Amino acid sequence: MSFFRELIDNFSSIFSDSGSPSNRANQIPSSSNYQNRAAMEGVENERAAYKLKGYFDLAKEEIDKAVRAEEWGLIDDAILHYQNAQRILGEAIATPVPSYISSRELEKVKSYRQKISKWQGQVSERLRTLNHRSGSKISHFF
């Protein structure tokens, strides 16, 4: 976070209208605090959607591994990969979303949450089927 603040402070000092260092020092505290806050909120807004996308992509990779393991007849491996995907999707659902998120980002977040919920249900169903079929003693992570 401090890296971003330094970066923003450096850019604001470079692009400030005032040429003299004393005027620049007087302007930065009032305007840069607002700019920093606005920039940090923008970064935080983007992070919510990117974080959900990251969880979603990670879960899809685990699901792909599970499907391949099933195709190869490695049911226990498939169950483990589905359980990993289930944990990842559970973390994604539990990820908090800032209340001040922009409407555009909120739509992205809603879209990812819907996809994640749908996939979570499908993974749960697949785990039940595989556990029933294999008679496995592997515990569930629901």
TrEMBL record:
The record's listing under CDD domains reads:
MIT_spastin
What segments bear the compositional bias annotation Polar residues? 24-36
The protein's matches in InterPro entries, at most eight in alphabetical order, are given as: MIT_dom
Identify the species of origin: Lactuca sativa
Gene3D superfamilies, per this entry?
Answer: Phosphotransferase system, lactose/cellobiose-type IIA subunit
Q: Where is this region: Disordered?
A: 17-36
Q: What is this protein called?
A: MIT domain-containing protein
Q: Which residues form the MIT domain?
A: 52-129
